[in-house]
Design goal:
Layout (H helix, E strand, L loop, with lengths): L3 H4 L7 E5 L3 H12 L3 E6 L12 E4 L5 H10 L2 E4 L6 H8 L8 H7 L2 H10 L7 E4 L2 H11 L3 E5 L9 E4 L5 H7 L5 E5 L5 E9 L5 E3 L4 E5 L2 E7 L5 H17 L4 E10 L8 E8 L9 H4 L4 H9 L11 E9 L6 H5 L4 E5 L10 E10 L3
Parallel strand pairs: 1-2, 1-4, 2-3
Antiparallel strand pairs: 5-8, 6-7, 6-8, 9-10, 9-13, 11-12, 12-15, 13-14, 15-17, 16-17
Bound molecules: adenosine monophosphate.
Length: 369
């Protein structure tokens, strides 16, 4: 469907609809406001920190067609901050208003098998994998993939939920039960040196730019810190960029996305190996440092892309370490705020449940390279 927006970019005063009311939606809405746009956040009832900073919000289920219809009428473009939006919701919206990134992007990236299959078809390396639906399937797949390997639910996994490592001697029936006996993917366990991500943007004309690559450290499967620049070779960095370009081009992506990558630097003259773990079709926690260390944040870059504006140069002026403030750590922000060059971002969430992302702090230092 050709719409006015496909030919022209949105002008200040236009309304950007955002599906999802969490901290990513909140930071997108703040960035949109800086560019003169209004945001309308759509999310189910709950603690929605994005509501506090947006011009308008709708609290309704993703299945509520009357509410979705009113939302579509109010906005000029729809984007999302959360990838587990029901397909039917986006299908409903896309007939009424442009959705960026497109509906196909969510359909592919919501399923780890279709995501990795698409990656392989486009020349992107991934761990060896197989689709498995039963204990017998797992047994067969292990013959090729070997142990250790990682069993993950195909859909709705995040922050390490719905996955388990299968080691020598582990009981396969128990492993399958541990992930809820659901359709799953079995992957080889990658003995990587470092986890990094590439956070990049593609505009409506196909131009792609990427932020510098952070290295990411997890605790209990949740991102704890992102540090930029990553301690990887220039060649591994180029390979990461090549992966981002291949994926964004294949998906005809519009907006910011992140690709989580496993990097192994080749020993004894062998080149590095860079494998895709997963694609986040949205702004990403490992890109939060861009707010303080770059001329443009990932949030503004995303808003520019979905509004049809030119992308900004993602130049990084400082080195940075981003610390997630999880659960009770959120209460420590006062002490952090006294540290030199520490930039505090709090999400305004009411309840500090264990592991819940309450805010982040980014410490800047002079750029060394
Ligand atoms: P995911 O939910 O796929 O992002 O996985 C969560 C974390 O588990 C990753 O950030 C890795 O640290 C680890 N992991 C996932 N898949 C693999 C794999 N195939 N090999 C080694 N570690 C993995």
């Amino acid at each position: 469907m050709m719409t006015k927006m496909d030919e022209t970019s949105l002008q200040p005063g236009a309304v950007i609809g955002i599906l999802g009311g969490g901290q990513l939606g909140r930071m997108l809405a703040l960035a949109a406001a800086e560019l003169g746009f209004a945001c309308h956040i759509y999310a189910p009832e709950g603690d929605n920190p994005a509501f506090d900073v947006a011009a308008r919000h709708t609290a309704a289920p993703y299945e509520d067609e009357a509410a979705l219809s009113a939302f579509a009428k109010d906005v000029d473009v729809v984007t999302y901050e959360f990838e587990n939006i029901p397909d039917a919701c986006l299908e409903f919206l896309v007939d009424r208003v442009p959705v960026r990134p497109g509906v196909n992007v969510l359909a592919i990236t919501q399923d780890r098998i279709s995501e990795k299959t698409m990656a392989v078809e486009n020349g992107v390396g991934v761990p060896a994998f197989a689709a498995v639906n039963s204990v017998a399937d797992i047994e067969n797949a292990i013959e090729n993939i070997g142990r250790p390997c990682v069993l993950k639910t195909r859909r709705f996994g995040y922050d390490g939920k719905g996955q388990t490592i299968i080691r020598d001697g582990d009981d396969l029936a128990k492993c399958f039960a541990d992930i809820g006996s659901q359709p799953a993917i079995l992957e080889s366990f990658v003995p990587f040196d470092l986890e990094v991500s590439i956070v990049a943007a593609r505009d409506v004309n196909g131009k792609i730019v990427a932020f510098d690559i952070p290295e990411n450290h997890h605790e209990n499967h949740i991102l704890a810190t992102s540090r930029v620049p990553a301690n990887i070779s220039a060649q591994a960095g180029e390979m990461a960029m090549d992966i981002a370009v291949k994926l964004a081009t294949a998906l005809e992506y519009v907006g910011v996305f992140a690709v989580e990558l496993f990097v192994s630097e080749g020993k004894d003259g062998a080149g590095p190996l860079v494998l895709m773990n997963e694609i986040a079709p949205r702004v990403h926690n490992s890109g939060h440092w861009t707010q303080d260390a770059c001329h443009v944040s990932q949030f503004e870059q995303h808003i520019r892309a979905v509004a049809g504006l030119p992308l900004a140069d993602p130049f990084r002026h400082s080195d940075a370490v981003m610390y997630n403030l999880l659960g009770q750590e959120g209460a420590e922000w006062g002490a952090l705020a006294t540290k030199e060059n520490m930039c505090i971002h709090l999400y305004g969430k009411a309840e500090a449940r264990e592991g819940r992302k309450m805010g982040h702090a980014t410490q800047l230092s002079k750029r060394k390279d």
